[in-house]
Amino acid sequence: MKSVVIVGAGLAGMVAARGLKRAGFSVTLLEATDSAGGKAGSNIKEGRLVEHGYHIFPAWYLNVRDLLAELDIKLIDFDKFYYLRSKAESNDAPVTDRFMVMYGFNSVTAIIKNIFSGLAPWPEVFLQAYFVIDALAERMSRRYFLDRISRTGLLRSRWYASDDIASLEGESTLKASAVPAYEMSAMTARLVTGYWLRNRKPFLSILKTDMQHALIEPMVEKLQSEGITIEYRCRVSEIETNGSQISAITCADGTRKEADYFLITTPLEITRQLMQKNLMALDPDLGNFGHLEAAPMTAIHLSLNRKIDGLPSQHVFFKGGRYGLSFIDQSQHWPGLDTTELSFISSNFIPLQGLDEGAQFEMLFDEIRQYIDISTDDIAHYVFQSNQEVPLFINTVAAWPNRPEVNSSKINNLFFAGDWVRNAIDLACMEGAVSSAMNVARTIDQSVNGTSDLPSARVPRRYNAFTMMLAKWALFPFALIIWVLARLGAGR
Ligand SMILES: Cc1cc2nc3c(=O)[nH]c(=O)nc-3n(C[C@H](O)[C@H](O)[C@H](O)COP(=O)(O)OP(=O)(O)OC[C@H]3O[C@@H](n4cnc5c(N)ncnc54)[C@H](O)[C@@H]3O)c2cc1C
């Protein structure tokens, strides 16, 4: 029986372990910390298990949804989300009057409602929607060029581009992906918007309780029931080579593991450190990981001692704001919460990185108070997860050529998986992590047995560029007229 050592028990490591075990490999799964799940899991703060941040599941997460179905995990579906204006922008109007509803792209009516949502002058919102279609009309055969310009750069090349559209794009891209639109690869944005547009229902979903209890623990139990144990507190610190192959890995405590195959599913910043001279001498491309970037996505969990009435149960983005804040009121979904429990994510935490944790929390809380009427007296308990130690890979311009394929290494018993490893989803997210893990398990199986019964990751459907081109030209006369209206100041 061939053996494989998998480093990292995040979603990618666990899914790959499951596949390889089912294919008959002897699997050793090593995890640096005390618990599995990685960024999708929790860590212990002040004696409580706290998730790294809320997680959303769009309809196009086909492989993650298959995994949930296998574990019999149900989701709560949302068909819309909200933008919340600040108090300053709305003359201190009550919070209930400051929400703007945005619908999933389920129907023409929903799209028209979004255009007139009040988010920005309606001609600019229309032209932003036109840009989404226009960008989807870009052929993926132009992938090389698309990956080397940013979303904002692509917009700038269009005749109807304006600062307003750039700002709308910037806002939605940052809050949905934690990558500024001026840094995000136009190719990644094109893929993700394409998946979202074609797989519309539900617009997005959340779990019925926190990630650890709802997903990670059932997953760990499933692995155990299939004979896989996770070896915790094994922080891999060195990869040994012998000739042209990996011979063993060593954990910080000196534990040494030998195997036929080695699968690294650690995050980018850790994997980069593990690629030392012995490996680079065998495969200089491993040094390319140095070009890639990661940034923290920060979370705050606020448990209030009172109920705030009038908050939507769906996902809410602060309109504007410095730190890209969005939240979900978990008390409207999770059992046993009688008072408001707000789970925030900051998608633009970089400006605060140099501050101490207390100051970081205060700056974020100050911004929260500019949108929601709460004071420190309302807080029964809070947890601040700066997540600086677990930054998320960001899909910057030209990242793709420097990301590894699951089997791209010239070292033939070294494989990679994880959200930053190349896969059809492209965006760093759970679906990307799971997709790469399924593909790597199949690839390793194939390299041993010649064939594999393990499934490849499913790829969500998207409209082809030609259909989008037709839509773009059909809408062109409207876009032209509305562009003239926009320049005349209509809707302001
Ligand atoms: C705040 C936040 C919110 C998010 N929201 C969403 C969302 O809404 N939707 C979505 O799809 N995705 C979201 N994500 C991203 C998603 O969580 C990740 O993309 C996904 O979980 C990555 O899984 P992974 O297995 O590739 O990597 P990781 O989860 O990073 O797992 C890597 C594992 O390797 C372990 N490890 C690290 N170093 C070593 C070592 N030296 N030796 C052994 N083990 C090691 C780690 O402890 C970890 O368990 C969010 C992430 C964050 C931080």
What is the CATH architecture annotation of the domain at 3-45 and 211-291 and 399-449? 3-Layer(bba) Sandwich
Question: Would you identify the CATH H-level superfamily of the domain at 3-45 and 211-291 and 399-449?
Answer: FAD/NAD(P)-binding domain
H/I helix tally: 14
Q: Assign the structural class, choosing from mainly alpha, mainly beta, alpha/beta, alpha+beta, or little secondary structure.
A: alpha/beta
User: What is the residue-averaged pLDDT?
Assistant: 94
Distance between the termini: 69 Å
Small molecules held by this entry: flavin-adenine dinucleotide
Residue stretches low in confidence (pLDDT < 50, at least 5 long) are none
- Major sheet size, sense and barrel closure: 7 strands, mixed
Radius of gyration: 23 Å
What is the total tally of β strands? 21
Question: What's the CATH C level of the domain at 3-45 and 211-291 and 399-449?
Answer: Alpha Beta
Overall 3D form = globular
Strand content: 15-25%
Order of strands side by side in the largest beta sheet? 7-6-16-17-18-15-19
CATH fold title of the domain at 3-45 and 211-291 and 399-449 = FAD/NAD(P)-binding domain
Helix content: 25-40%
Give the helix/strand layout.
Blueprint: E1 3-7, H1 11-22, E2 26-30, E3 42-45, E4 48-51, H2 62-70, E5 75-78, E6 80-84, E7 99-103, H3 108-115, H4 122-136, H5 143-146, H6 151-156, H7 163-177, H8 186-198, E8 204-207, H9 211-225, E9 230-231, E10 236-242, E11 245-251, E12 256-258, E13 261-264, H10 268-274, H11 277-282, E14 293-295, E15 298-304, E16 316-318, E17 325-329, E18 341-346, H12 357-369, E19 379-385, E20 392-394, E21 414-416, H13 430-449, H14 465-487
Parallel strand pairs: 1-2, 1-13, 2-9, 6-16, 13-21
Antiparallel strand pairs: 3-4, 5-8, 6-7, 10-11, 11-12, 14-20, 15-18, 15-19, 16-17, 17-18
Helix pairs in contact: 1-9, 1-13, 4-7, 4-14
Flavin-adenine dinucleotide (FAD) binds at residues 7-13, 30-33, 38-40, 52-53, 55-56, 235-236, 265-267, 270, 297, 299, 345, 387, 390, 392, 418-419, 428-431, 433.
